[in-house]
Design goal:
The protein has 292 residues and is of the alpha/beta class. It has a single domain, classed as Alpha/Beta hydrolase fold, catalytic domain (Rossmann fold, 3-Layer(aba) Sandwich). Helix 3 links the parallel strand 2 and strand 3.
Length: 292
C-alpha cells in the first residue's frame, strides 16, 4: 500500500486551518500541540474528540501523554470550533478532509523525529479516523490505536437520528450532553447524517485496521453496541484488537453519562488513574511483532 509521505505534501498549516475566515471560532477549541515534557520524545499522539464535545475536554488526556514523554496533537473536527453555522454545513467528506490533515501533521512530526505515531479517539473521533484508514489506499500510519467508546457500532435507538436528516440537514437537535462539555447546545442533523454515513461504510474488509488496538468502554454505555463491537472484532482480520471494560468510580458530577469516559470528573479519579495506567502499559509494552 502507498505511504502517507506523498499524500501529505500539500497539507495546509495548522495556523491556516485554525484561522477560518468563513466561521467564527472559539480560540480555546482550536487544534493544539502539546509538546513532550521529556527531553527525548517517545512518540507522537493524535487525539480526537467526540460528537458535540468540546475538543478542549480532551486536554486532560493530552497533558497525560505530554507528561509521559509524547508529543500530542489534540485535533478539532469541523463543527466543533464553536460555530453553529459550520455544524449545519457538515458532511462525511468534511470530516474525512479534517482527519487527513490532522494525521498528516502528526505523521510528519513522527517522521521528522523518527519516532512512532499513535492514535487515541473518543466516540466520533475514533469513527472518523477508522473510516479514513479503512477506506484509504494508504497504509495505516499508526503503530497502535486506543479507542474510547468508539462510535463504529451503535445501539438501534442511536440510529433514529439518521432518519431526522432526511427532512433537513440544518436542524439543530437539543443536546443531552453535560452543559460544560458540549460544544454547542444542539447537534445538527447534518452531523448525525455524516456520522451514520461513516458507520455504514465500516464493513469488511478490515485488513488495514488490524494493528494492536485497545478499546476502552463502560459496560453500561448508553450509545455503543458492545455486541456489535465484539462481533466485528471476532473476525480474523481484527485479531489484534481487544476490549477492556471499565467501571466508573465516585465522581463529583451531579449528572453523568456512561458513554462519557474522557477525564477525571466524568470517569472518577480512581477509574481515571487506572485507565491511564492500562493505556500506558498498552502503548509501551512490546507488541507481538516486536517480540519476534
Amino acid at each position: 500500500m502507498k505511504s502517507w509521505k506523498n499524500a501529505c505534501n500539500s497539507t495546509p498549516s495548522l495556523s491556516s486551518i485554525n484561522n477560518n475566515t468563513l466561521f467564527k471560532y472559539d480560540p480555546k477549541e482550536l487544534n493544539q500541540w502539546f509538546s513532550s515534557l521529556q527531553e527525548n520524545s517517545k512518540g507522537v499522539f493524535l487525539i480526537l474528540h467526540g460528537l458535540n464535545l468540546k475538543p478542549s475536554k480532551m486536554n486532560s488526556l493530552s497533558h497525560f501523554w505530554s507528561a509521559s514523554g509524547y508529543d500530542v496533537l489534540r485535533g478539532t473536527l469541523s463543527g466543533h470550533f464553536g460555530s453553529k453555522d459550520e455544524m449545519k454545513a457538515l458532511t462525511k467528506q468534511t470530516w474525512e478532509r479534517d482527519v487527513t490533515h490532522l494525521i498528516c501533521h502528526a505523521y510528519q512530526l513522527s517522521i521528522k523525529k523518527n519516532i512512532p505515531l499513535y492514535f487515541t479517539g473518543y466516540s466520533l473521533g475514533a469513527a472518523v479516523a477508522i473510516d479514513k484508514i479503512k477506506n484509504s489506499s494508504l497504509k495505516n500510519p499508526f503503530s497502535k490505536m486506543i479507542l474510547l467508546a468508539p462510535a463504529i457500532r451503535v445501539k438501534w435507538f442511536a440510529k433514529l437520528t439518521k432518519f431526522l436528516s432526511f427532512f433537513s440537514s440544518r436542524i439543530m437537535i437539543p443536546s443531552d450532553n453535560l452543559p460544560n462539555y458540549r460544544s454547542l447546545n444542539g447537534t445538527s442533523t447534518a452531523a448525525y447524517k455524516a456520522l451514520h454515513n461513516i458507520i455504514d461504510s465500516l464493513g469488511p474488509p478490515y485488513e488495514n485496521l488490524n494493528i494492536p488496538t485497545q478499546i476502552f468502554i463502560d459496560k453500561n454505555d448508553e450509545l455503543i453496541s458492545i455486541p456489535g463491537l465484539e462481533s466485528m472484532i471476532d473476525t480474523e482480520e481484527l485479531s489484534k484488537w481487544s476490549i477492556k471494560f471499565i467501571s466508573k468510580s465516585k465522581t463529583t458530577l451531579k449528572k453523568n453519562h456512561d458513554h462519557l469516559i474522557i477525564d477525571p470528573p466524568t470517569l472518577g479519579k480512581d477509574s481515571w488513574k487506572s485507565m491511564l495506567g492500562n493505556m500506558k502499559n498498552f502503548i509501551e509494552s512490546p507488541s507481538l511483532e516486536q517480540r519476534h
